[in-house]
Queue: 2 jobs
Job 1
Amino acid sequence: MSNGKIVSMLSLLSGLPVFVSPDDFGKVRPKVVIDVRDPQEYAEAHIPGAVSFPVDAFLRAVDSVPFHMPGFDTLVDKIASLGVRQGESVLIYSSARLTFHYLNAAALYMVLKYLGFKKVYVLNGGFEAWEEAGKPTSNRRGLRGRIRLKARADSTFIITINDLLDSTGNVRKDVHLVDVRLPAYYFGVIAPPFYTRRGHVPGATSLPFNFFFKTVRGKKGTYYVLADTALIDSILKPNLSPIKLNVFYGNTPREAAFFLLLLDYVGYPRERYRLYLNGFPEWSRREELPVVRYRWE
């Protein structure tokens, strides 16, 4: 069965896919709407009633690498400030002027799934699509009351480097690695300052996260929306292994988190993939592990 057909089936069963349009807002009926944009953007205009929750409010740097989840208790405390429980509906939106902006929404999606939230949706096209659709906006701050949130960590979609490697220190033979960074990082042309080496893990397939978007030219400028399911299916199918465990890694956990969001959207079975959140920064710092690098002249 194609991923596009799976999406259609899931939509019929659950009522809505993970990515929703502005017109689906009333169907989502969110208990809380969460704006993960920069606080200044939020202050200028936002969806009425939305609360500001930028990425640095719930993620932190670890060993100079940004966008990691903090400890479990700290994370629960931060999410408790949103005043929403695991069975209630949540809508997340970011800016969509750049594909990178979706990574902030994906990061919060991952956090909420990690804490056991069931009804989590992301606004396709972000705030730009909301405005383009002529929906109302506000500059009044949305408020939520803190609750006592009980949670149990669901780490079933996460893999550590110890579980990624076999007893000889090599990548397990039943693992297919997928590098979701932009090609310039994959080939080692550029690198953030928290790498010790450039390149990629030997044998990893390059599948940049930004391949899954299309451009929309709106009244106020260009923004991005998720591609249709047929295109997503045509990209995923040749790049994922049908028999091995597909493991996604990036520069930071945000990029891997996007694939949790994307694969939940297309109904890809959780048992078929994992997120290696420490990603290439950790791999590059382990000098005993090999790195492949190409050069663009």
Job 2
Amino acid sequence: MKAVFIVGEQRSGSNLLRLMLAQAGIAAPHPAHLLTRMMPLVASFGDLSNDSNWQQLVDDSCVLIERNPVPWNPLKRLDRANITQRCRDRSLVAIFGAIMDTYAEAHNQSMWACKSMGYIEFAPQLDAYFKDPKYIYLYRDGRDVTLSFTRAVIGEKHPYHIAKGWAKLQRMCLTERERIGPQRFFSLSYEELLANSEQVLRSCCTFLDIPFRDEMLSFHDSRDAVSTASKSQLWQNLDQPVMKDNSRKFLRDMSEESVRIIESVAGDVLDQLGYDRVFVQPGEEQAFTPEDLSAFAQENEQAKEAKKALMDSEDLERRKHQLSLLTERVYFLKGLSHGQILRFLAYLEERHYEPGDTVMYQGEETQDIFFVISGSLEVLQDDKKLAELTDGAPFGELGFISKEPRTATVRALSAARVFHLRRQDFAALEENDPGIAVRVLWLISEHLVSRFA
């Protein structure tokens, strides 16, 4: 299959472009952000040459797609064996490619487009796996992107944090544009797409070596557009014609202070992309103090919580359902957000055990705690079997809490993967990320109450 990646930043019209391309005969599903969400977790699946670990990664990746808030019709359920067979190596990129090929085949297309905008981060891996993939860099004025994010139910909310993230992604795109070259890298602005839709789309089709179709301009009538618009307020305009005046809104709806922050943080990128500054000229950028940054961070978190409270309950449930696969098998991750899970993983050490290996000895004075990722283990006290532990269960929690010697021995019954959290690493977590530490302690307490009951 021919692979196309739409890159840049969200809130830049990527769903609009995706629906337009779909009318040109390109398979372009609503993104599940598979690489962004799963790549940081790949190490926790262990050695992928192990069939069990590899199949678990395949299955979890398929579940993420199957639970996408906007369904990948007609793929109600992905054939795991078929996905595995299509992979040319054992990597997450290979799984992603196999799933996209399957989607394109289901729609009788020979080209697919992925609009997970942040995939520019993985451009070297994508280039290495796919045959001459093409990139469409869709960019929008960072001040309008910031305004859009402040109103959206997703993403950061303070202008400083939004602008910083926007600038980082644009710099990546500009760097990759130089590396890849114009034969495989096409740039277009959101503003130009709105103002001159047909001309821009014809140029884009020439780049992709496909014919332009008039249906691309009536994208809003497609079943995909209507379905996507109904799933979230994020995409509520997709079943409407192009909004030609949907630019430079920051001049009317954003405070001067917010614009100054954006132009101080991302002014150089605005310059490179041809957007005129309004308040902060080159060399006049404001330097922010640690106190400023602390205040920005607090305001950002408060605004995110306020937005979440206003989120449509069905939309929120669809998103939670998709990401819950990260916590279903590992109980102690329950209730943590995707970002919190990634931060927590930095404090954990993964260990692997073969059947018969002893993980923990009765009488030991260690105070660490363990969590089962996969496999089964038995709990022995004075050589008498007390229980079996399976996916998600913690053990060693009594010593972790009370600092008393181990009351039992734990031994692997099958090949097992276990997360190990040292007491001193948990102390560092308490200091650096107390919210996660409290959540983990709460889950351990819940487990202990359940056991004692």
